[in-house]
UniProtKB/TrEMBL annotation:
Keywords tagged on the record: FAD, Flavoprotein, Oxidoreductase, Plasmid
Entries under InterPro entries matching the protein: Acyl-CoA_dehydrogenase, Acyl-CoA_Oxase/DH_mid-dom, Acyl-CoA_Oxase/DH_mid-dom_sf, AcylCo_DH-like_C, AcylCo_DH/oxidase_C, AcylCoA_DH/ox_N, AcylCoA_DH/ox_N_sf, AcylCoA_DH/oxidase_NM_dom_sf
Family: Belongs to the acyl-CoA dehydrogenase family.
Co-factor requirement: FAD
Source species, domain of life: Bacteria
Location of the Acyl-CoA oxidase/dehydrogenase middle domain: 134-215
Domain Acyl-CoA dehydrogenase/oxidase N-terminal: from-to ranges: 13-130
The protein's name in its UniProt record: Acyl-CoA dehydrogenase
GO cellular component labels: cytoplasm
Length: 401
């Protein structure tokens, strides 16, 4: 697989190599053929029928949720990188193997913060792949709610006996349609519990209304990205995730590795897009020679190879930082910015090399291009991460004066 040797430098375990290589074979041989399957919903995402069929194959192959062990423990982030990159070799691979957002991040958060009760009630069905989940944080701009700035959160929760009552709106909630587990973030103004709170809920719930599921540039995830109204949702107090008022801290527990996981999966997709583009350029002839022998084409593919190596290096570097126990917000921001930009250039070059074929659905290249474009926004736009990094530079400068 072109572009994967950094794992040797960062010490991927033999166990992870065995798992990752098994995942790669499964995705290439069993899941890639589904890329032309016509079972898609109104916005182009895989239907639940298609998802369940692919997950059935993953269970048979022993690659369902491969980064979480039978005892509930997780692979290290470095080992996870080796596995998730390979699951991403097809846009459908992470769905089939249950390594896709938002489920992967939600499982990570619940595993690290959830009580034994919450893990038993909600986590098992996610790890098994029997249920999908959604993470309710972003809010509509026309409502003045939280987007990249979670401190603007307007969804409110208040105590009512042994329950909390939640009211508000959410938007771009990936996979909400069809999800069976939700993690809802809301703001408390209760004395002694001020701040953000998180709640685990069963879905669907009549108090959670899907207003619309817009068509978006990406369509790799079932359920789309819904806009939601939450109207007097009653949640038992024991379904609060962690402590009241600590929601922003828990969000960082989830978001830092989740950003990195996105990088892992889409790196795998770009590795595959590069393979397709190289194959095309070596087979196609123009002006009496193969396309790859034209510098304008060959140089793009050579740059892609370089960019793949740089992206891989960033992924493993950030993973190694997270494995030290550091929250890794700085490193995950840097990696998200750098890898998203590198992968965007790779995907664009692949489309360009393939010409007219590159913008058709005859291969996954055009989809990878669309997915990477969306990735540059999701989990924090590039500009927000750069702004955060600039603030840290300023803070460090002040400390030195």
């Amino acid at each position: 697989m072109t572009g994967t040797a950094q794992h040797e430098f960062f010490g991927v375990t033999e166990r992870a190599r065995e798992i990752g290589d098994k995942v790669e074979r499964f995705v290439r041989e069993k899941i890639a053929p589904y890329e032309s399957d016509k079972r898609r919903d109104h916005h182009g995402g895989p239907t639940e029928e298609l998802l369940h069929e692919m997950r059935g194959l993953a269970r048979e192959a022993g690659v369902m949720t491969p980064h979480i062990m039978e005892d509930g423990s997780h692979l290290s982030q470095v080992d996870t990188a080796y596995v998730l990159i390979r699951s991403g070799l097809s846009p459908l691979g992470p769905l089939a193997c249950n390594t896709m957002a938002p489920d992967e991040g939600n499982m990570y958060l619940l595993g690290h913060v959830g009580s034994d009760f919450l893990k038993e009630r909600f986590l098992g069905q996610l790890v098994s792949g029997d249920a999908r989940s959604a993470f309710f944080m972003t809010e509509p701009a026309d409502w003045g709610g939280a987007g990249s700035d979670p401190s603007m959160m307007k969804t409110i929760c208040r105590r009512d006996g042994n329950h909390w009552v939640v009211n508000g709106r959410k938007t771009f909630i990936t996979g909400a349609q069809g999800a069976r587990v939700g993690i809802i973030m809301a703001r408390s103004e209760e004395e002694g519990a001020e701040g953000a709170c998180m709640f685990l809920v069963d879905l669907p719930d009549p108090a959670i209304r899907i207003d619309e599921v817009p068509n978006t540039i990406d369509n790799s995830m079932p359920g789309g990205h819904a806009t939601i109204t939450i109207d007097n949702l009653r949640v038992p107090a024991d379904q609060m995730l962690g402590e009241a008022g600590e929601g922003f801290k828990y969000a960082q527990v989830r978001l830092s590795p989740a950003r990195l996981s996105h990088c892992m999966r889409w790196l795998g997709a770009c590795i595959r897009a590069q393979e397709i583009a190289v194959d095309y350029a070596c087979r196609r002839e123009a002006f009496r020679k193969q396309l790859i022998d034209h510098e304008g084409v060959g140089f793009m593919l050579a740059q892609n190879w370089i960019d793949l190596k740089q992206a891989e290096l960033m992924v493993y570097w950030c993973a190694s930082v997270l494995d030290t126990g550091d929250l890794g917000t700085t490193e995950s921001s840097m990696t998200k910015v750098a890898v998203a930009d590198l992968l965007m250039r790779i995907a664009d070059n692949c489309v360009q090399v393939m010409g007219g074929t590159g913008v058709t659905d005859r291969t996954i290249v055009e989809q990878v291009f669309r997915e990477i474009r969306a990735f540059r926004i999701y989990d924090g736009p590039t500009e927000v991460h750069k702004w955060s990094l600039a603030k840290k530079l300023k803070k460090a400068w002040k400390a030195e004066q």
